[in-house]
């Protein structure tokens, strides 16, 4: 698969096969991904890779947070980095369009017990969509350049994962509660928990993994200067 094809093929995977990902594969994946660029080459990233009983222990605690949803948002999470949003007028319709597309799959017309189904979805998300592994992406520096570098390495992991037949979903929601990771994993206090990646073999029969994703037309995104 060439790079352009990989960029188009990567998409957020939200249903995984139960097959575990061998440690050797995850090691190779992170070994190649550490070649991502970073500001000043400081490589501010640190990865905590979870699977098996430890992942189950973490997700059992995260799932308790599904009930803290007040209808609009989770109540009083204390993430390590300030939360994004509320989004600007320009961006809100893009967020709404994703929600409409995924809600249509999760809750088709006539869905009964909608609230229970929505709770089920939040729990599924807080279990990293039942992926057999999760990568917690941390930063040893909280400056903007380092956080950009964390984004760069995160996408590098997601693209490289394709070479191993793996699917990924970058996930901000689980890291809203960094105290859970700190308590259950031996993590230094000053290391910021920035984001996470659910990772495993994708179930490509699941409609949530195959629906057409929208993107803004290029003309809405670019101004050309001098060419
Ligand atoms: C920083 C970041 C955080 C995200 N957090 C979540 C999340 O918590 N839950 C989720 O289902 N998807 C999450 N996503 C996935 C986005 O919804 C997804 O990338 C976007 O809808 C575009 O779709 P695609 O990844 O399939 O191209 C996140 C993506 C990014 C980059």
SSE order, one letter for each helix or strand: HHEHHHEHEHE
* Mean of pLDDT: 97
The unreliable regions are none
Could you give the count of β-strands?
4
Strand order of the largest sheet: 1-2-4-3
DSSP helical segment count? 7
Rg (C-alpha, Å): 18 Å
* Largest sheet composition: 4 strands, antiparallel
The name CATH uses for the topology of the domain at 3-68 and 117-204 is: NADH Oxidase
- Ligand list: flavin mononucleotide
Global structural class? alpha+beta
Strand percentage, roughly?
Answer: 5-15%
Overall shape = globular
Span between N and C termini?
31 Å
Task: Describe what you observe in this structure.
Strands 1-2-4-3 form a 4-stranded antiparallel beta sheet. The chain has a domain at 3-68 and 117-204: NADH Oxidase, CATH 3.40.109. The chain is built from 7 helices and 4 strands. The chain is an alpha+beta fold. 37% of the residues lie in helices and 12% in strands. The site of flavin mononucleotide has 12 residues, from strand 3.
């Amino acid at each position: 698969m060439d790079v352009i094809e990989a960029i188009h093929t990567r998409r957020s995977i939200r249903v995984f096969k139960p097959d575990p990902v061998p440690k050797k594969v995850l090691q190779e994946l992170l070994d190649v991904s550490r070649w991502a660029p970073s500001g000043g080459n400081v490589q501010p990233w640190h990865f905590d890779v979870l699977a098996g009983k430890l992942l189950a222990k973490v997700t059992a605690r995260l799932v308790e947070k599904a009930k803290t949803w007040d209808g609009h948002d989770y109540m009083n999470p204390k993430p390590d980095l300030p939360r994004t949003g509320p989004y600007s007028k320009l961006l809100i319709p893009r967020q709404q369009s994703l929600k409409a597309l995924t809600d249509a799959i999760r809750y088709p017309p006539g869905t009964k017990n909608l609230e229970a189904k929505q709770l089920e979805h939040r729990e599924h998300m807080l279990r990293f969509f039942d992926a057999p592994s999760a990568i917690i992406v941390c930063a040893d520096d909280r400056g903007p350049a380092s956080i950009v570098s964390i984004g760069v390495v995160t996408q590098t992991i997601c693209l490289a994962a394709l070479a191993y037949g793996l699917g990924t979903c970058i996930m901000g929601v689980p890291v809203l509660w960094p105290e859970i990771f700190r308590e259950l994993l031996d993590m230094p206090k000053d290391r910021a928990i920035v984001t996470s990646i659910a990772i495993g073999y994708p179930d490509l029969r699941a409609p949530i993994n195959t629906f057409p994703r929208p993107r803004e037309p290029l003309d809405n995104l670019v101004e050309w200067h001098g060419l």
